[in-house]
Specification:
The complex is a heterodimer of chains A (300) and B (282).
Chain A: H1 2-8, H2 11-44, E1 47-48, E2 56-57, H3 61-68, H4 70-101, H5 108-116, H6 123-133, H7 141-148, H8 163-188, H9 192-200, H10 205-216, H11 218-233, H12 237-242, H13 257-266, H14 271-297
Antiparallel strand pairs in A: 1-2
Chain B: H1 2-14, H2 16-43, H3 63-71, H4 74-105, H5 111-120, H6 126-140, H7 146-150, H8 157-168, H9 172-180, H10 185-196, H11 198-214, H12 217-222, H13 231-241, H14 246-281
Helix pairs in contact in B: 2-14, 3-14, 4-8, 4-11, 5-8, 9-10, 11-14, 13-14
The chains are: A mainly alpha (300), B mainly alpha (282).
Chain lengths: 300, 282
Protein backbone atom coordinates (compact mmCIF):
# COMPACT_ATOMS: atom_id res chain seq x y z
CA UNK A 1 0.00 0.00 0.00
CA UNK A 2 2.70 2.45 1.09
CA UNK A 3 5.05 1.25 -1.65
CA UNK A 4 2.48 1.71 -4.40
CA UNK A 5 1.65 5.18 -3.07
CA UNK A 6 5.35 6.09 -2.96
CA UNK A 7 5.91 4.81 -6.52
CA UNK A 8 3.13 6.99 -7.89
CA UNK A 9 4.82 10.17 -6.66
CA UNK A 10 6.92 12.36 -8.92
CA UNK A 11 10.60 12.73 -8.13
CA UNK A 12 10.05 16.25 -6.79
CA UNK A 13 7.28 15.09 -4.49
CA UNK A 14 9.51 12.31 -3.18
CA UNK A 15 12.29 14.81 -2.52
CA UNK A 16 9.90 17.16 -0.72
CA UNK A 17 8.71 14.34 1.53
CA UNK A 18 12.32 13.33 2.28
CA UNK A 19 13.14 16.94 3.15
CA UNK A 20 10.27 17.13 5.65
CA UNK A 21 11.33 13.78 7.13
CA UNK A 22 14.84 15.14 7.67
CA UNK A 23 13.36 18.26 9.26
CA UNK A 24 10.79 16.53 11.47
CA UNK A 25 12.89 16.14 14.64
CA UNK A 26 14.58 19.54 14.30
CA UNK A 27 11.25 21.29 13.80
CA UNK A 28 9.88 19.58 16.91
CA UNK A 29 12.99 20.77 18.77
CA UNK A 30 12.78 24.39 17.61
CA UNK A 31 9.07 24.57 18.36
CA UNK A 32 9.31 23.12 21.88
CA UNK A 33 12.73 24.40 23.02
CA UNK A 34 12.89 27.77 21.26
CA UNK A 35 9.54 29.17 20.10
CA UNK A 36 7.20 27.92 22.78
CA UNK A 37 9.52 29.11 25.61
CA UNK A 38 9.82 32.50 23.90
CA UNK A 39 6.06 33.00 24.05
CA UNK A 40 5.98 31.56 27.54
CA UNK A 41 8.51 34.19 28.67
CA UNK A 42 6.14 36.93 27.47
CA UNK A 43 3.25 35.19 29.21
CA UNK A 44 5.09 34.72 32.53
CA UNK A 45 6.05 38.40 32.44
CA UNK A 46 2.37 39.22 32.98
CA UNK A 47 2.06 36.99 36.06
CA UNK A 48 2.61 37.34 39.76
CA UNK A 49 4.00 33.92 40.55
CA UNK A 50 6.48 32.40 43.00
CA UNK A 51 6.89 29.03 41.23
CA UNK A 52 4.94 27.09 43.87
CA UNK A 53 1.74 29.07 44.46
CA UNK A 54 -1.06 29.98 42.09
CA UNK A 55 -0.36 32.07 38.99
CA UNK A 56 -2.04 35.44 39.12
CA UNK A 57 -2.47 37.54 35.96
CA UNK A 58 -1.50 41.14 36.65
CA UNK A 59 -1.11 42.59 33.14
CA UNK A 60 1.77 45.03 32.85
CA UNK A 61 2.22 45.56 36.58
CA UNK A 62 5.63 43.80 36.57
CA UNK A 63 6.90 46.32 34.04
CA UNK A 64 5.47 49.22 36.06
CA UNK A 65 7.24 47.93 39.17
CA UNK A 66 10.51 47.53 37.26
CA UNK A 67 10.41 51.07 35.88
CA UNK A 68 9.57 52.44 39.33
CA UNK A 69 12.53 50.57 40.88
CA UNK A 70 15.64 52.69 41.40
CA UNK A 71 17.83 49.60 41.46
CA UNK A 72 16.69 48.71 37.94
CA UNK A 73 17.95 52.01 36.57
CA UNK A 74 21.27 51.56 38.34
CA UNK A 75 21.55 48.03 36.92
CA UNK A 76 20.65 49.23 33.44
CA UNK A 77 23.28 51.95 33.70
CA UNK A 78 25.85 49.37 34.85
CA UNK A 79 24.95 47.12 31.92
CA UNK A 80 25.43 49.94 29.44
CA UNK A 81 28.69 50.92 31.13
CA UNK A 82 30.05 47.41 30.56
CA UNK A 83 29.20 47.67 26.87
CA UNK A 84 29.83 51.39 26.38
CA UNK A 85 33.33 51.28 27.85
CA UNK A 86 34.25 47.66 27.16
CA UNK A 87 33.44 47.59 23.44
CA UNK A 88 35.43 50.65 22.30
CA UNK A 89 38.43 49.65 24.41
CA UNK A 90 38.49 46.07 23.11
CA UNK A 91 37.91 47.04 19.49
CA UNK A 92 40.59 49.72 19.61
CA UNK A 93 43.15 47.40 21.19
CA UNK A 94 42.21 44.50 18.91
CA UNK A 95 42.58 46.62 15.79
CA UNK A 96 46.00 47.98 16.79
CA UNK A 97 47.25 44.49 17.62
CA UNK A 98 45.82 42.96 14.43
CA UNK A 99 47.12 45.78 12.23
CA UNK A 100 50.70 45.37 13.40
CA UNK A 101 50.54 41.61 13.89
CA UNK A 102 49.61 41.31 10.23
CA UNK A 103 52.90 42.97 9.26
CA UNK A 104 55.32 40.82 11.20
CA UNK A 105 56.59 37.45 10.07
CA UNK A 106 59.02 36.28 12.71
CA UNK A 107 57.19 34.07 15.23
CA UNK A 108 53.88 35.35 13.82
CA UNK A 109 51.89 32.26 14.81
CA UNK A 110 53.42 32.15 18.25
CA UNK A 111 52.67 35.78 19.09
CA UNK A 112 49.17 35.46 17.68
CA UNK A 113 48.67 32.42 19.94
CA UNK A 114 49.69 34.47 23.01
CA UNK A 115 46.86 36.90 22.27
CA UNK A 116 44.37 34.20 21.38
CA UNK A 117 44.86 31.78 24.30
CA UNK A 118 42.83 33.80 26.87
CA UNK A 119 39.81 33.41 24.57
CA UNK A 120 39.85 29.66 25.25
CA UNK A 121 39.69 29.98 29.02
CA UNK A 122 36.70 29.42 31.28
CA UNK A 123 35.35 32.74 32.58
CA UNK A 124 34.68 31.37 36.06
CA UNK A 125 38.22 30.00 36.39
CA UNK A 126 39.75 33.26 35.19
CA UNK A 127 37.50 35.20 37.54
CA UNK A 128 39.31 33.47 40.39
CA UNK A 129 42.70 34.37 38.97
CA UNK A 130 41.77 38.03 38.52
CA UNK A 131 40.11 38.20 41.91
CA UNK A 132 43.36 36.96 43.37
CA UNK A 133 45.36 39.56 41.39
CA UNK A 134 43.11 42.31 42.80
CA UNK A 135 43.65 41.30 46.43
CA UNK A 136 45.18 43.83 48.81
CA UNK A 137 48.83 43.47 49.83
CA UNK A 138 50.59 41.13 50.45
CA UNK A 139 48.81 38.66 48.14
CA UNK A 140 47.63 40.82 45.27
CA UNK A 141 50.03 41.13 42.35
CA UNK A 142 48.57 44.32 40.95
CA UNK A 143 48.76 46.19 44.23
CA UNK A 144 52.26 44.82 44.76
CA UNK A 145 53.24 46.18 41.37
CA UNK A 146 51.53 49.54 41.98
CA UNK A 147 53.16 50.11 45.37
CA UNK A 148 56.56 49.09 44.05
CA UNK A 149 56.38 51.90 41.47
CA UNK A 150 55.12 54.37 44.08
CA UNK A 151 51.36 54.36 43.38
CA UNK A 152 49.14 53.75 46.43
CA UNK A 153 47.35 50.38 46.64
CA UNK A 154 43.84 50.39 45.17
CA UNK A 155 40.68 48.72 46.52
CA UNK A 156 39.54 47.44 43.05
CA UNK A 157 36.67 44.98 43.60
CA UNK A 158 35.84 46.52 46.99
CA UNK A 159 35.30 49.99 45.55
CA UNK A 160 31.99 51.35 44.28
CA UNK A 161 33.91 53.30 41.64
CA UNK A 162 36.46 50.73 40.47
CA UNK A 163 34.53 47.47 40.90
CA UNK A 164 32.77 47.55 37.55
CA UNK A 165 35.95 48.28 35.62
CA UNK A 166 37.88 45.66 37.60
CA UNK A 167 35.31 43.08 36.45
CA UNK A 168 35.29 44.43 32.90
CA UNK A 169 39.06 43.99 32.54
CA UNK A 170 39.06 40.16 32.44
CA UNK A 171 36.11 40.23 30.03
CA UNK A 172 38.05 42.52 27.66
CA UNK A 173 41.17 40.40 28.16
CA UNK A 174 39.38 37.15 27.32
CA UNK A 175 37.55 38.51 24.26
CA UNK A 176 40.51 40.30 22.67
CA UNK A 177 42.00 37.25 20.93
CA UNK A 178 38.82 36.53 19.01
CA UNK A 179 38.57 40.12 17.79
CA UNK A 180 42.23 40.17 16.76
CA UNK A 181 41.74 37.06 14.62
CA UNK A 182 38.63 38.47 12.97
CA UNK A 183 40.40 41.79 12.27
CA UNK A 184 43.38 39.97 10.72
CA UNK A 185 40.99 38.00 8.49
CA UNK A 186 39.31 41.26 7.51
CA UNK A 187 42.62 43.00 6.75
CA UNK A 188 43.81 40.04 4.65
CA UNK A 189 40.58 40.10 2.63
CA UNK A 190 41.36 43.61 1.32
CA UNK A 191 42.57 43.22 -2.29
CA UNK A 192 46.32 43.82 -2.65
CA UNK A 193 45.65 45.95 -5.72
CA UNK A 194 44.11 48.71 -3.52
CA UNK A 195 47.41 49.09 -1.70
CA UNK A 196 49.46 48.96 -4.87
CA UNK A 197 47.33 51.67 -6.45
CA UNK A 198 47.69 53.82 -3.34
CA UNK A 199 51.45 53.37 -3.30
CA UNK A 200 51.70 54.38 -6.94
CA UNK A 201 49.75 57.51 -6.04
CA UNK A 202 52.38 58.15 -3.38
CA UNK A 203 50.12 57.71 -0.36
CA UNK A 204 51.85 57.43 3.01
CA UNK A 205 51.25 54.78 5.65
CA UNK A 206 48.82 56.93 7.63
CA UNK A 207 46.89 57.88 4.52
CA UNK A 208 46.62 54.26 3.39
CA UNK A 209 45.36 53.29 6.83
CA UNK A 210 42.76 56.06 6.85
CA UNK A 211 41.58 55.87 3.28
CA UNK A 212 41.88 52.19 2.39
CA UNK A 213 42.28 49.88 5.38
CA UNK A 214 39.70 51.41 7.73
CA UNK A 215 36.91 51.96 5.16
CA UNK A 216 37.39 48.43 3.79
CA UNK A 217 37.06 47.05 7.31
CA UNK A 218 33.64 48.61 7.84
CA UNK A 219 31.75 45.27 7.72
CA UNK A 220 34.26 43.71 10.12
CA UNK A 221 33.94 46.63 12.52
CA UNK A 222 30.14 46.48 12.42
CA UNK A 223 30.17 42.72 12.98
CA UNK A 224 32.58 42.92 15.92
CA UNK A 225 30.83 45.93 17.45
CA UNK A 226 27.48 44.17 17.45
CA UNK A 227 28.81 40.80 18.63
CA UNK A 228 30.81 42.28 21.48
CA UNK A 229 28.10 44.80 22.44
CA UNK A 230 25.65 41.93 22.79
CA UNK A 231 28.29 39.95 24.71
CA UNK A 232 28.91 42.77 27.19
CA UNK A 233 25.20 43.52 27.64
CA UNK A 234 24.75 39.86 28.65
CA UNK A 235 27.72 39.79 31.04
CA UNK A 236 27.08 37.47 33.99
CA UNK A 237 29.77 34.82 34.66
CA UNK A 238 32.49 37.28 35.65
CA UNK A 239 30.24 39.37 37.89
CA UNK A 240 28.69 36.37 39.61
CA UNK A 241 32.12 34.85 40.27
CA UNK A 242 34.07 37.95 41.25
CA UNK A 243 31.68 39.69 43.64
CA UNK A 244 31.02 38.54 47.21
CA UNK A 245 28.36 35.79 47.15
CA UNK A 246 27.64 36.67 43.53
CA UNK A 247 25.73 39.74 44.65
CA UNK A 248 26.95 42.30 42.11
CA UNK A 249 28.26 44.45 44.92
CA UNK A 250 29.52 46.56 46.48
CA UNK A 251 26.07 48.19 46.77
CA UNK A 252 24.89 46.86 43.40
CA UNK A 253 27.43 49.00 41.58
CA UNK A 254 28.67 46.09 39.46
CA UNK A 255 25.34 44.31 38.96
CA UNK A 256 24.33 43.81 35.32
CA UNK A 257 20.84 43.04 34.00
CA UNK A 258 21.37 39.27 33.70
CA UNK A 259 22.46 39.01 37.34
CA UNK A 260 19.34 40.92 38.38
CA UNK A 261 17.25 38.47 36.34
CA UNK A 262 19.01 35.55 38.01
CA UNK A 263 18.38 36.96 41.50
CA UNK A 264 14.70 37.70 40.93
CA UNK A 265 14.08 34.29 39.39
CA UNK A 266 16.21 31.95 41.45
CA UNK A 267 16.86 33.70 44.80
CA UNK A 268 13.58 35.54 45.35
CA UNK A 269 11.38 33.39 43.11
CA UNK A 270 9.63 36.40 41.62
CA UNK A 271 9.34 34.73 38.25
CA UNK A 272 6.99 37.27 36.72
CA UNK A 273 9.32 40.17 37.49
CA UNK A 274 12.34 38.20 36.25
CA UNK A 275 10.57 37.26 33.00
CA UNK A 276 9.62 40.90 32.43
CA UNK A 277 13.32 41.80 32.80
CA UNK A 278 14.25 39.18 30.20
CA UNK A 279 11.73 40.73 27.82
CA UNK A 280 13.41 44.11 28.36
CA UNK A 281 16.81 42.53 27.64
CA UNK A 282 15.35 40.93 24.51
CA UNK A 283 14.05 44.28 23.25
CA UNK A 284 17.42 45.96 23.84
CA UNK A 285 19.30 43.21 21.96
CA UNK A 286 16.72 43.22 19.17
CA UNK A 287 17.17 46.95 18.62
CA UNK A 288 20.94 46.43 18.36
CA UNK A 289 20.58 43.56 15.87
CA UNK A 290 18.16 45.58 13.75
CA UNK A 291 20.62 48.47 13.80
CA UNK A 292 23.30 46.09 12.51
CA UNK A 293 21.09 44.88 9.66
CA UNK A 294 20.32 48.46 8.76
CA UNK A 295 24.00 49.45 8.77
CA UNK A 296 24.96 46.43 6.68
CA UNK A 297 22.28 47.12 4.10
CA UNK A 298 23.39 50.69 3.45
CA UNK A 299 25.84 50.87 0.58
CA UNK A 300 29.13 52.52 1.48
CA UNK B 1 79.06 59.50 0.91
CA UNK B 2 79.22 55.84 0.06
CA UNK B 3 79.23 54.98 3.74
CA UNK B 4 76.13 57.04 4.25
CA UNK B 5 74.32 55.33 1.38
CA UNK B 6 75.22 51.84 2.53
CA UNK B 7 74.16 52.68 6.06
CA UNK B 8 70.77 53.84 4.83
CA UNK B 9 70.45 50.68 2.76
CA UNK B 10 71.34 48.60 5.81
CA UNK B 11 68.84 50.44 8.02
CA UNK B 12 66.17 50.01 5.40
CA UNK B 13 66.84 46.30 5.37
CA UNK B 14 66.56 45.76 9.10
CA UNK B 15 63.79 48.34 9.45
CA UNK B 16 64.11 49.64 13.03
CA UNK B 17 60.39 50.46 13.04
CA UNK B 18 59.59 46.81 12.54
CA UNK B 19 61.84 45.76 15.38
CA UNK B 20 60.10 48.16 17.77
CA UNK B 21 56.70 46.93 16.62
CA UNK B 22 57.76 43.32 17.00
CA UNK B 23 59.08 43.90 20.51
CA UNK B 24 55.95 45.76 21.63
CA UNK B 25 53.69 43.05 20.20
CA UNK B 26 55.75 40.37 21.87
CA UNK B 27 55.65 42.14 25.26
CA UNK B 28 51.90 42.66 24.88
CA UNK B 29 51.52 38.95 24.23
CA UNK B 30 53.54 38.14 27.33
CA UNK B 31 51.24 40.41 29.37
CA UNK B 32 48.24 38.58 27.91
CA UNK B 33 49.36 35.20 29.24
CA UNK B 34 50.71 36.51 32.57
CA UNK B 35 47.50 35.62 34.47
CA UNK B 36 47.74 32.06 33.14
CA UNK B 37 51.43 31.82 33.96
CA UNK B 38 50.83 32.87 37.56
CA UNK B 39 47.85 30.55 37.83
CA UNK B 40 49.98 27.59 36.76
CA UNK B 41 52.94 28.58 38.91
CA UNK B 42 50.81 29.01 42.03
CA UNK B 43 49.18 25.62 41.56
CA UNK B 44 52.62 24.12 42.33
CA UNK B 45 53.23 26.27 45.41
CA UNK B 46 52.58 25.42 49.04
CA UNK B 47 50.10 27.44 51.11
CA UNK B 48 52.80 29.53 52.79
CA UNK B 49 54.64 30.19 49.55
CA UNK B 50 51.61 31.92 48.00
CA UNK B 51 52.77 35.08 49.71
CA UNK B 52 56.05 34.82 47.85
CA UNK B 53 55.15 36.47 44.56
CA UNK B 54 57.90 34.92 42.40
CA UNK B 55 56.84 33.07 39.28
CA UNK B 56 59.05 30.00 39.88
CA UNK B 57 57.88 27.94 42.88
CA UNK B 58 60.74 27.33 45.33
CA UNK B 59 59.58 23.88 46.36
CA UNK B 60 57.31 22.68 43.55
CA UNK B 61 54.68 20.31 44.91
CA UNK B 62 51.82 18.27 43.51
CA UNK B 63 50.04 18.37 46.88
CA UNK B 64 47.40 20.83 45.64
CA UNK B 65 46.45 18.56 42.76
CA UNK B 66 46.26 15.53 45.04
CA UNK B 67 44.17 17.54 47.49
CA UNK B 68 41.74 18.76 44.81
CA UNK B 69 41.29 15.33 43.29
CA UNK B 70 40.81 13.66 46.68
CA UNK B 71 38.95 16.24 48.71
CA UNK B 72 36.59 17.72 46.14
CA UNK B 73 34.42 16.26 43.41
CA UNK B 74 36.56 17.85 40.73
CA UNK B 75 37.20 14.66 38.79
CA UNK B 76 33.49 13.94 38.76
CA UNK B 77 32.80 17.50 37.50
CA UNK B 78 35.33 17.07 34.72
CA UNK B 79 33.65 13.86 33.62
CA UNK B 80 30.23 15.56 33.79
CA UNK B 81 31.48 18.43 31.62
CA UNK B 82 33.14 16.04 29.22
CA UNK B 83 30.04 13.90 28.85
CA UNK B 84 27.56 16.76 28.45
CA UNK B 85 29.79 18.65 26.00
CA UNK B 86 30.44 15.53 23.92
CA UNK B 87 26.79 14.51 23.77
CA UNK B 88 25.71 18.02 22.84
CA UNK B 89 28.45 18.37 20.20
CA UNK B 90 27.55 15.08 18.51
CA UNK B 91 23.94 16.20 18.37
CA UNK B 92 24.82 19.60 16.93
CA UNK B 93 27.14 18.14 14.31
CA UNK B 94 24.46 15.69 13.22
CA UNK B 95 21.35 17.87 13.28
CA UNK B 96 22.77 21.26 12.30
CA UNK B 97 24.41 19.76 9.24
CA UNK B 98 21.36 17.67 8.34
CA UNK B 99 19.11 20.73 8.55
CA UNK B 100 21.68 22.94 6.83
CA UNK B 101 21.97 20.42 4.00
CA UNK B 102 18.21 20.03 3.63
CA UNK B 103 17.75 23.79 3.44
CA UNK B 104 20.61 24.17 0.96
CA UNK B 105 20.07 21.27 -1.40
CA UNK B 106 16.35 20.43 -1.44
CA UNK B 107 13.56 22.50 -2.98
CA UNK B 108 10.18 22.24 -1.35
CA UNK B 109 7.29 24.46 -0.38
CA UNK B 110 7.77 26.09 3.00
CA UNK B 111 11.58 26.00 2.75
CA UNK B 112 12.03 29.74 3.19
CA UNK B 113 9.70 29.81 6.19
CA UNK B 114 11.67 27.04 7.92
CA UNK B 115 14.97 28.80 7.19
CA UNK B 116 13.79 32.20 8.39
CA UNK B 117 12.20 30.64 11.49
CA UNK B 118 15.44 28.89 12.45
CA UNK B 119 17.48 32.00 11.67
CA UNK B 120 15.16 34.10 13.83
CA UNK B 121 16.05 32.00 16.89
CA UNK B 122 19.45 33.74 16.78
CA UNK B 123 17.66 36.90 17.93
CA UNK B 124 16.33 35.26 21.10
CA UNK B 125 18.78 35.59 23.99
CA UNK B 126 19.30 32.48 26.12
CA UNK B 127 18.45 34.47 29.25
CA UNK B 128 14.89 34.90 28.01
CA UNK B 129 14.41 31.14 27.65
CA UNK B 130 15.98 30.19 30.95
CA UNK B 131 12.85 30.66 33.07
CA UNK B 132 10.61 28.60 30.72
CA UNK B 133 13.34 25.93 30.43
CA UNK B 134 13.51 25.78 34.20
CA UNK B 135 9.71 25.41 34.47
CA UNK B 136 9.88 22.68 31.84
CA UNK B 137 12.72 20.89 33.66
CA UNK B 138 10.82 20.93 36.95
CA UNK B 139 7.71 19.59 35.29
CA UNK B 140 9.48 16.70 33.55
CA UNK B 141 11.99 15.91 36.30
CA UNK B 142 15.04 17.10 34.34
CA UNK B 143 16.58 19.00 37.27
CA UNK B 144 19.88 17.36 38.25
CA UNK B 145 20.12 15.21 35.12
CA UNK B 146 22.59 15.25 32.23
CA UNK B 147 19.70 15.62 29.83
CA UNK B 148 18.55 18.70 31.75
CA UNK B 149 21.98 20.33 31.35
CA UNK B 150 22.29 19.45 27.68
CA UNK B 151 18.83 19.74 26.13
CA UNK B 152 18.78 23.51 25.36
CA UNK B 153 21.89 23.24 23.16
CA UNK B 154 21.17 20.14 21.10
CA UNK B 155 20.64 22.20 17.93
CA UNK B 156 21.72 25.73 17.12
CA UNK B 157 20.53 28.32 14.63
CA UNK B 158 24.11 29.49 14.14
CA UNK B 159 25.41 26.02 13.25
CA UNK B 160 22.52 25.43 10.87
CA UNK B 161 23.16 28.75 9.15
CA UNK B 162 26.91 28.04 8.91
CA UNK B 163 26.44 24.55 7.49
CA UNK B 164 23.82 25.75 5.00
CA UNK B 165 26.33 28.30 3.68
CA UNK B 166 28.91 25.58 3.12
CA UNK B 167 26.53 23.03 1.60
CA UNK B 168 25.30 25.68 -0.85
CA UNK B 169 28.82 25.76 -2.26
CA UNK B 170 28.69 22.08 -3.27
CA UNK B 171 27.86 21.41 -6.95
CA UNK B 172 24.35 20.02 -7.55
CA UNK B 173 25.68 17.68 -10.26
CA UNK B 174 27.41 15.62 -7.59
CA UNK B 175 24.11 14.97 -5.82
CA UNK B 176 22.22 14.37 -9.08
CA UNK B 177 24.80 11.78 -10.15
CA UNK B 178 24.48 9.88 -6.88
CA UNK B 179 20.68 9.95 -7.19
CA UNK B 180 20.88 8.44 -10.66
CA UNK B 181 23.15 5.73 -9.23
CA UNK B 182 20.34 4.88 -6.85
CA UNK B 183 21.82 6.25 -3.59
CA UNK B 184 19.34 7.04 -0.85
CA UNK B 185 19.04 10.72 0.13
CA UNK B 186 20.41 9.98 3.60
CA UNK B 187 23.44 8.21 2.12
CA UNK B 188 24.07 11.11 -0.28
CA UNK B 189 24.14 13.47 2.68
CA UNK B 190 26.22 11.33 5.03
CA UNK B 191 28.63 9.72 2.55
CA UNK B 192 29.06 12.33 -0.20
CA UNK B 193 28.15 15.79 1.13
CA UNK B 194 29.45 15.50 4.70
CA UNK B 195 33.05 14.53 3.85
CA UNK B 196 33.26 17.65 1.66
CA UNK B 197 32.49 20.07 4.48
CA UNK B 198 34.76 18.58 7.14
CA UNK B 199 36.61 21.87 7.81
CA UNK B 200 33.38 23.73 8.57
CA UNK B 201 32.03 20.78 10.51
CA UNK B 202 35.08 20.52 12.73
CA UNK B 203 35.12 24.28 13.35
CA UNK B 204 31.50 24.01 14.46
CA UNK B 205 32.29 20.99 16.64
CA UNK B 206 35.29 22.65 18.33
CA UNK B 207 33.40 25.83 19.15
CA UNK B 208 30.29 24.10 20.32
CA UNK B 209 32.35 21.85 22.57
CA UNK B 210 34.28 24.80 23.96
CA UNK B 211 31.06 26.73 24.53
CA UNK B 212 29.64 23.83 26.51
CA UNK B 213 32.83 23.32 28.48
CA UNK B 214 32.71 26.94 29.67
CA UNK B 215 28.89 27.32 29.86
CA UNK B 216 27.82 28.62 33.24
CA UNK B 217 24.41 30.14 33.81
CA UNK B 218 22.18 27.28 32.66
CA UNK B 219 24.13 24.44 34.39
CA UNK B 220 24.17 26.65 37.51
CA UNK B 221 20.38 26.84 37.47
CA UNK B 222 19.52 23.29 36.48
CA UNK B 223 21.84 21.52 38.96
CA UNK B 224 21.52 21.53 42.75
CA UNK B 225 23.27 18.23 43.43
CA UNK B 226 27.08 18.65 43.54
CA UNK B 227 27.39 15.26 41.82
CA UNK B 228 25.88 16.79 38.68
CA UNK B 229 27.88 20.07 38.61
CA UNK B 230 29.89 20.90 35.52
CA UNK B 231 33.37 22.39 35.98
CA UNK B 232 32.36 26.08 36.00
CA UNK B 233 29.54 25.46 38.48
CA UNK B 234 31.86 23.45 40.68
CA UNK B 235 34.51 26.19 40.53
CA UNK B 236 31.94 28.82 41.49
CA UNK B 237 30.91 26.66 44.47
CA UNK B 238 34.43 27.15 45.91
CA UNK B 239 33.27 30.68 46.72
CA UNK B 240 33.37 30.64 50.51
CA UNK B 241 34.69 27.12 50.98
CA UNK B 242 38.28 27.65 49.91
CA UNK B 243 38.10 31.44 49.74
CA UNK B 244 41.52 32.16 51.17
CA UNK B 245 43.36 29.05 49.95
CA UNK B 246 44.49 30.65 46.71
CA UNK B 247 46.83 27.81 45.78
CA UNK B 248 43.90 25.35 45.92
CA UNK B 249 41.63 27.60 43.87
CA UNK B 250 44.40 28.20 41.32
CA UNK B 251 44.93 24.46 41.00
CA UNK B 252 41.24 23.96 40.30
CA UNK B 253 41.31 26.79 37.75
CA UNK B 254 44.32 25.14 36.12
CA UNK B 255 42.50 21.83 35.85
CA UNK B 256 39.54 23.65 34.26
CA UNK B 257 41.72 25.49 31.74
CA UNK B 258 44.43 23.02 30.78
CA UNK B 259 42.28 20.68 28.66
CA UNK B 260 41.23 23.50 26.34
CA UNK B 261 44.80 24.81 26.17
CA UNK B 262 46.07 21.35 25.23
CA UNK B 263 43.47 21.03 22.49
CA UNK B 264 44.52 24.46 21.22
CA UNK B 265 48.20 23.60 21.16
CA UNK B 266 47.45 20.45 19.18
CA UNK B 267 45.04 22.05 16.70
CA UNK B 268 46.25 25.63 16.65
CA UNK B 269 46.19 26.33 12.90
CA UNK B 270 42.91 24.55 12.58
CA UNK B 271 41.21 26.49 15.37
CA UNK B 272 42.40 29.87 14.14
CA UNK B 273 41.14 29.03 10.66
CA UNK B 274 37.85 27.96 12.23
CA UNK B 275 37.44 31.33 13.96
CA UNK B 276 38.11 33.15 10.71
CA UNK B 277 35.69 30.89 8.88
CA UNK B 278 32.93 31.33 11.42
CA UNK B 279 33.57 35.06 11.67
CA UNK B 280 33.48 35.67 7.94
CA UNK B 281 30.53 33.47 7.09
CA UNK B 282 28.61 34.28 10.26
Amino acid sequence: MFVSFWNKLSINQKLAITAWLFLAVPIAFYVTIRFYPTFEAFYVSTLKWNLLGAKKYIGLRNYEKIFADEDFWLVLLNTFKYAGVGVPISLFLAFIIAYFLNEINRWHDFIRALYFIPFLTTAVAMAWVWKWFYQPMPIGYINYFLTSVGIPAQPFLKSVHQGLYAIMAPAVWAGLGFQVIIFIAGIRAIPQSYYEAAEIDGAGRWQILREITLPSLKPTVIFLTVVSTIGFLRIFDQVYSMTTNGSGGPLNTTKPLVLMIYEFAFDEFKLGRAAALTVILFVILLVISMFQLWLMRKKP
Amino acid sequence: MIDQASRIAYLEKIQPGKIIIWTLLFLGGVVMITPLAFMISTSFKTGTEVFNLGIIPENPTLKNYIFILNESKFLRWMLNSLWVATFSTVSVVFFDSLVGYTLAKFTFRGQTIVFVAILSTLMIPTEMLIIPWYMMSREFGWIDTYWGIAFPGLMTGFGTFLMRQFFMGLPDELIEAARIDGWSEFAIWSKIAMPLVVPALSALAIFHFLGNWTAFIWPLIVTNDPDLYTIPVGLASFNGEFETDWEIVMTASCLATLPTLLVFLLLQKFIIRGVMLAGLKG
